[in-house]
Amino acid sequence: MLLKEKMPSPRVQTILWVFGLTKIFCLVWFQPLCSEFTDYQYPLLELTRQGYFPFLDYWLEYPPLFAWLAVGIYWLSQLMPLGSSGPSAYGLYMGILMIIAEVSMLYFLWYIAKKLYSEFHAERIAWIYAGLFTSFFAIEAFFDSLPAAMMLGALYFLWVKDRPYLASFCIALGAGIKLIPIILIPVLFHKKKQIGPLLMTGIWLSLFFIPLLWYRPGWSTTFFRVSLERPPWETIWAIADQEFGFGYLGPIPDETMPIRSTEELLALRTQSRFSTDVSFLLPTSIRVKIIYAIATLAFLGIFLYSWQKAKSKADIQSWFGFAALIIVLFFIHTKGWSPQFITYVIPILLLAFPDKIHLILLLILINFIEMPIWVFRWPENRWLLCSVVLSRTAVLAYFAYQIWQRFFQKLDLWTQESSLSKESTL
Asked: 20 to 30 A Cα–Cα from 214, which one of 23, 114, 151, 305?
């Protein structure tokens, strides 16, 4: 069996049950202001009844593995609607899948924290994560909990179970759902002679992507092209490029095609997926491209230097610091940010800084101001967006600096003291 270690303490098992059941109750009782599942994915998936399938007849901004997973869940929701119908049934099934992912994340979080510090601190981190708001809004509307769980699963199998091949599978599976988990591939080198897991990651990714690239290259290459050429949104790069939108990906309405409602805008977005013409992607200014290229070189230098430091120290704290650093730096460097991306950041920050909960709560508050307040209440308020983006970037940059201080420079005595602390009770 994979899980040969003893199960978490009865109190932690209670956290897992309460956490999961609370999520189920919220899923059934509360409806989100918007849902990627019902508002965008469901209308496209309904086209499978007419013989139109993702990456065979149209492209999506999601990798093929998730697109076909969504097809399977759509048909399951039609066969067994669980008392709902139409979009509600599909949204319910997707929400259940996200709850499973979130409970898995809490489980992985506990084990990794126990490995880094002590059982006492692991239980404390589990309680905090169970009470945070971030996962509540994510499970009802977005699928980012799934790849985020794969990222934590990769760290769990790598450091807790010492199963690098399972870690490589988690990274590849997460990248097949959303490309973000690819950033953890360098962590596979935490020990010598880790070429095998790296090769297996490549093999799994090939299995997920190559068949459709070979069979329908037009749709798959459009997905990769859009991923690379998509203009920035809700980041410092977007502000520098005078882009103040929320990441809408589709033709921009104008006087030739007036849009009178959100439903018409979603329909226009859906129609654009049936063409490989992505001329609607607005070009990024040369000035921003140059600044972004310089920043990329700087981030690459930090990445290589921290990787060498982790390899030279060869302890779990340094390798965890490296993983945490590249995740935080990635979300500072990335061209686009959506509020649900906080799902990837919060677990890693909780593991890195159990003593800085106030700053983690500040990041969650900034995210809350971004959505729903800015997105749904004042989307035309550019000053509010700029304030949110600059504040988020500053907090993430502070966390990146603190990760370096704590896990590489060893200037923070908290980790040294907590890792030696004896198990105790809350």
From this structure: 151
